[in-house]
Amino acid sequence: MTTTTDRTAAGLALAVVSAVTFGLSGPFAKALTDAGWSASGAVLVRLGGAAAILLVILAIVRPGVLAALRADGPALVLYGVLATAGVQVAFFNALQYLPVTVALLLEYTGPILVIAWVWAVRRQPPSRRTLAGAIVALFGLSLVVQVWSGVALQWEGLAWGFAAAVCQASFFLVADRAGSSTPPLVLAGVGMTVGTVVVALLGLIGLLPIVIDTAATDVLLAGVDVGWPVAATLLVVVSSVIAYLTGVAAIARIGASRGSLVALLEVVASAVASWLLLNQVPTPVQLLGGALILAGVALTSTAATKSASPAALAVEP
Fold first, then answer.
1. How many Cβ atoms from other residues are within 10 Å of residue 306's Cβ?
2. Tens of pLDDT along 136-147?
3. How far apart are alpha carbons 138 and 108 in whole angstroms?
4. 21/295 Cα distance (integer angstroms)
5. By C-alpha distance, which of 283, 263, 154 is closest to 275?
6. Who wins on pLDDT, 232 or 310?
7. pLDDT for 35 beyond 80
8. How far is CA 296 from CA 215, 257, 264, 276, 304, in A?
9. What is the pLDDT of residues 170-227, one digit of tens each?
């Protein structure tokens, strides 16, 4: 009993660390884009740096990784294109128009899209709890974007935010397709490598503006110019490598269902980090909307747990 309790406690602690470190990615990326980097440039550095580190780890701990590549190649490619590259390109572009917290909350409507997909395509209607959660989350979303005001948020940011939600939803569906045959570390490492190649190619042909300004100044975190190497390193090491590895370790100990609920702390962590590091303070109405979105997504996650829906596979994208 003690061993089980200790394992669960360790898993919960790792899940909290993962959620918090993922939540820091927005402020770190925002500091770079505000200093002249393009959103795609920040994505390329994040994916490339994390892929390099994770591939080294894979070479050490899983030298037989090629077997997984042969077994689940299509799923790994889809994961890299949509769930790794797509979600980050969309999210970081949203940051150019929106506060970090709003962009992240829009992205977190992804589980609702998963529910809609499963209902429409797989003919599996959601439970009452799932529907209730979706309604609560959508109402909260309307408070966050302040649809009645007409002045609060730019449509470009909203479009990128919803694109991030679509890509996040694709993560759950692709992860479900990959199944248990592909270890999470392989999925993350190979997915980031594919994502790096995709973003680099799109940059080379001119579809994505890749700007990595090594002469950038005023890379501000908490009002201090930390320089781009510090912000980029934090983005790669803290918000990618540590976040993914602690998330994988947490899921192994407490399961995807419980881990998905703890992962919702990312939104709270991002809000606190944006307040402390970027001085972005949400309005009371937006805070209420954010709380409702969290409540709604939590309801859908617990409902998905009972039905074994892909929405329960909430490892961070």
1. 12
2. 877 877 777 665
3. 11
4. 21
5. 283
6. 232
7. yes
8. 43, 15, 11, 26, 12
9. 876 776 666 556 777 887 888 889 999 999 998 999 888 899 998 887 888 888 889 9
Query: What confidence tier does 47 reach under pLDDT thresholds 50, 70, 90?
Result: very high
Give the tens place of pLDDT for each residue, 230-276.
999 999 999 988 887 787 777 667 765 466 656 667 777 777 788 88
155 token code pair: 């449509």
Q: Identify the burial level of 8 via C-beta atoms within 10 angstroms of its C-beta, where 0-12 means exposed, 13-18 middle and 19 or more buried.
A: middle
* Contact criterion met (CB below 8 Å) for 298 and 265: no
Note the pTM of the prediction, 2 decimals.
0.75
**Amino acid identity, position 144:** V
- Helix (H) or strand (E) run with residue 221 in it: strand 220-221
3 state DSSP class of 224? strand
CA–CA separation, 46 and 264 (whole Å): 22
Lookup: tokens for 45: 């550095």
DSSP code string of 6-48 = HHHHHHHHHHHHHHHHHHTHHHHHHHHHHTT--HHHHHHHHHH
183 φ/ψ angles, rounded to the nearest 5 degrees: -60, 145
Alpha helices in 24-154 (DSSP H): 25-34, 39-61, 65-71, 73-78, 87-94, 100-107, 110-121, 128-145
131 Cβ neighbours under 8 A, 6+ residues apart: none
What does each C-alpha distance from 10 to 3, 164, 246, 251 come to in angstroms?
Answer: 11, 31, 10, 11
Q: Which of 195, 304, 193, 192 is nearest to 259 (CA)?
A: 304
pLDDT band at 151 (very low <50, low <70, confident <90, very high): very low
Q: Which pair of structure tokens corresponds to residue 154?
A: 């730019």
